Amino acid sequence: MISQFGFVLLFFISGLLFVLVFLGVAKLLRPSHPNAEKNAIYESGEETIGTAHVSFNIRFYIVALIFILFDVELVILFPWATVFGDKALVTETKGIWALYAGIEMAIFVFILALGLLYAWLQGHLEWIRPNQKESDFKSVVPKDLYQKINEKYS
Predict the structure, then answer these.
(1) Which of 1, 6, 132, 145 has the fewest Cβ atoms within 10 angstroms?
(2) What confidence score (pLDDT) does residue 43 get?
(3) What are the residues whose beta carbons fall under 8 Å from the beta carbon of 93, sequence distance 6 or more?
(4) Cα dihedral: 44, 48, 53, 54 (round 10)
């Protein structure tokens, strides 16, 4: 007699076999004509220059993760608004349902606000701006001419 773990093992083995068989069949049936042009690195229509190993600032990832956190919040808010905004439930429970839903959402938004406050206090939302250098460029066009052009087109 096979145990429950045996069923899981059989399911795992059959899934693995399914994938391997179909990958093998696809390898046999697909055409394979490699050449230099097909094997070339191609990025957005431009030939690549230099190495692909470039260091990115970690702030990009932190800001992206914070964005995803608050984007997922919206995914949770929409179903909440449709379910808990049911007018029939509110009238049937004499407003208790609306009070419960409001308190529940206030707690949810409060926890998210705490997360935002934490990220803000830790400085994850701050962006270090580079120092601007003063330009030593001297224009041959006099400033009066620039002023006249600005006045004419404003």
Answers:
(1) 1
(2) 66
(3) none
(4) -70
Which of 105, 46, 117 has the alpha carbon at shortest distance from 76?
105
Q: What is the pLDDT of residues 85-127, one digit of tens each?
A: 778 877 888 888 888 888 988 998 899 889 889 988 988 888 7
CA dihedral 12, 14, 17, 19 (to 10 degrees): -80
Residue 18 inside a domain? The answer is no
Q: Which domain holds residue 91?
A: 58-121
Q: What is the dihedral of CA 60, 61, 63, 65, to 10 degrees?
A: 160
Beta carbons of 93 and 40 less than 8 angstroms apart: no
- Flag whether 83 is in a domain: yes
pTM assigned to the model = 0.47
Classify strands 42-43 and 46-47 as parallel, antiparallel or unpaired.
antiparallel
Number of domains in the chain: 1
| CB 124 within 8 Å of CB 66 | yes
Pick from 116, 50, 56, 108: nearest CA to 81: 108
Stretch 40-55: mean pLDDT:
71
State the chain's mean pLDDT as an integer.
84
Is residue 142, in this structure, part of any structural domain at all?
A: no
